[in-house]
Amino acid sequence: MHLDDFLTEQWMNEHENDAVYNMTDTCVKPLTLRELFAMDADGVLQDVVLDYGTITGDVRLKQEILGLYQSGTEENLTLTHGCLAANELVMYTFLEPGDRVVSFTPGYQQFTSLPESFGCRVHTIPLKEENGWMPDDSDLEEAFREDVRMLIINNPNNPTGTFFDRAMLEKLIRYCRRNGTILLSDEVYRGRSEEEVSVSDLYEYSISTGSLSKLFSLAGIRLGWIKASTELISTLNVRRDYSFISTGPLADTAALAALKQKEMILKRSEDIIAGNKAVYEKWLADMPYASLVMPSYGPVGFLRYEADIDDVTLAQMLLRDHGVFFVPGSCFGMDHHFRIGFTRDTEETEAGLSILGQVLRKANCE
Ligand SMILES: Cc1ncc(COP(=O)(O)O)c(C=O)c1O
Hints:
Layout: H1 7-15, E1 21-22, H2 33-39, H3 59-66, E2 77-80, H4 82-94, E3 100-105, H5 110-117, E4 121-126, H6 137-143, E5 150-154, H7 166-177, E6 182-186, E7 206-211, E8 224-227, H8 230-243, H9 249-259, H10 262-285, E9 290-292, E10 300-305, H11 311-322, E11 324-325, E12 327-328, E13 337-341, H12 346-363
Parallel strand pairs: 1-11, 3-4, 3-5, 5-6, 6-7
Antiparallel strand pairs: 2-8, 7-8, 9-10, 10-13, 12-13
Helix pairs in contact: 3-9, 4-5, 4-8, 10-12
This protein binds pyridoxal-5'-phosphate.
């Protein structure tokens, strides 16, 4: 089974530790264990019993996760080690060689390279920068001209920040209903706004995945989940039993303590994201060599720059000479872009952008 290199993850692995100004992290400024303990007013973390715990996940935690959705019971959830493993479990369970899979590009490589490795026929719909990183209706129509086994979306999307509102989701669901296409929606960047609807509240053949990594600032817990109909969850749990026994009481209880404070943690993240977006807006107003479709939601965007230098070379140079770290758009198949995260202290973002600005001006012979 051939599996392509996961370009973004490799880039992060190879270079992230050299960053002085990390401009590309998608996890909002991570919390510490000390901060988590301080939030744990009920003291649940003190009493963790280190057995396997409840196999498909702590029931109290499932109740808290359900608070992020409009519908569902504990039977509609199963827990995983992060959202990446959640997506993998879904694809392994429901895809077979020859199946047609549709996703969007630029997008997260897991949604295309993994199904390709199973022998699926993967079709990608372009997200168009000139449309504010939205797809064309004609491309959607084209994608569904044949039977589609699985449509995979990421809402909001990494790297473009594309956000599908309820009307757009309903449009996609109408296509899926034609022949019972499974809609896998990676909602790892979903926040708490009412507009950020989960497909698992809209369509019976949908599967929503999520985790605490991004807006909850707790990637280190490695706690994710899958929400779907009871039938789909039961099928997923059969394969899940062969992959891992449980996510374990330590992760489950840490996640429980965090989700009990979800309003506070999400407000913190919203403030950090808003602060960083404001820094970008100010910088862009005086920068003729860069542009950005500012995302409505989520901590991720896709910055375009103008200069006669490819993005891998520019990213390497920025890191080597200045400690400024970006993931090049080429890791998502699109040159002359950088994937950006609105996730760090604003001082770090300001300093990094100031250096990027100087480099772009020089490259354009100013
Ligand atoms: C779209 C998407 N899904 C999943 C993940 C991984 O999430 P987790 O840390 O919950 O495994 C990432 C991480 O960058 C991501 O961008």
